[in-house]
Amino acid sequence: MIDGKIASIDGWPEPAILSSLSAGERAAQLAEVSREVRRSVVRMISAAHLGHIGGDFSVTDIATTLFFGVLRLDPANPNWPERDRFILSKGHCAASLYSVLAMRGFFPLDWLETFMQPLSILNGHPNRKIPGVEANTGPLGHGLPIGVGLAIASRLSGKNWRTFVVLGDGELQEGSNWEAAMAAGHRELDNLIAVVDRNRLQQGARTEDTNRLDPLADKWTSFGWETIEIDGHDHAALYDVFTRPGRGKPLAVIANTIKGKGVSFLEDRVEWHHKVPSPEQVERALEELSR
C-alpha cells in the first residue's frame, strides 16, 4: 500500500515465466500478491460499508494462483479468443475478483475505490461489462452450468482453452450444480475444472448443519469427475493441480479453506459472511496482513 491506496503489481511475470521458477519462489510470489489482494478487499469493503469479507478471504489464494500463475489471458485484450475462461460462481465475493483483475492489469487500480458506489461499474456481483469478467453471477448455482456450456463450446470449436469455475460450498445445495456436473461427466469434459471453496460456512450457519454435503468428494466422483482434495491456501498445491493435464474427465478440486483466512478475528466465524469491519478492526486487519 502507498498512502492508503492499492499498490500496483509492477513487472509481474507472465505464467509462462512464472512456471520456470522453483516451486518455493513461485509460491512466495503468489503469497505476496494474495496478501495485497486481502488488504485491498479490507479497504474496499470498509469504504463501501458493504461486502462479504469472509468469503473474499477464503477464495483469495485460489483466484490469485489462477490469474497470476495459471490462466492464459491478455489483460490488454480481455476478449482474446484463445483465453482461458474463469467464472466466479460465488459472485457475492466480487471484491476479491475485482482486486485480482485490477492488479493483473484488466482495468485501472483506482476503479477499486468506487466499489459499490452509485453508478460504479464495480457493483456487488460480477458483471460482464467489467473487463475480465466472463459471466454475470450472483444467483447461486448459475456458474457451473455456464462453465459446462463454455467447455462444450471449446471442444466444438476445436480449441484448447480451459474453463475454471469457482463455487462456494454452500452453493452446492443448489440442484442446478448437480445437473451440470452430470452433463459434464457424461461428456467427459476434461477441459473443465470446478473449484469448491470449501470453507464449511455459509450465511448463518455451518454447511453441515444447514444441509449436509459430506462425503463431498464421493459425490463428485460418482458423477464421473476426477476429484482431488487440497489445502486451498497452499499456493504450490493449487498451482500443481491447476496446471496438470486433462485426463479424460472433468476435474473437481475441493479446496479446503478457512473463511476469513489471514486475519485472526475473522477466521472461521460465521458472522463475517456479511459484516463490515469497524475502523479499529480495519486497522488491526491491515496490520495483521502486513506481517
From TrEMBL:
Gene3D superfamilies: 3.40.50.970. Residues 36-273 form the Transketolase N-terminal domain. InterPro entries: THDP-binding, Transketolase_N. Pfam families: Transketolase_N. SUPFAM superfamilies: Thiamin diphosphate-binding fold (THDP-binding). This is Transketolase subunit A.
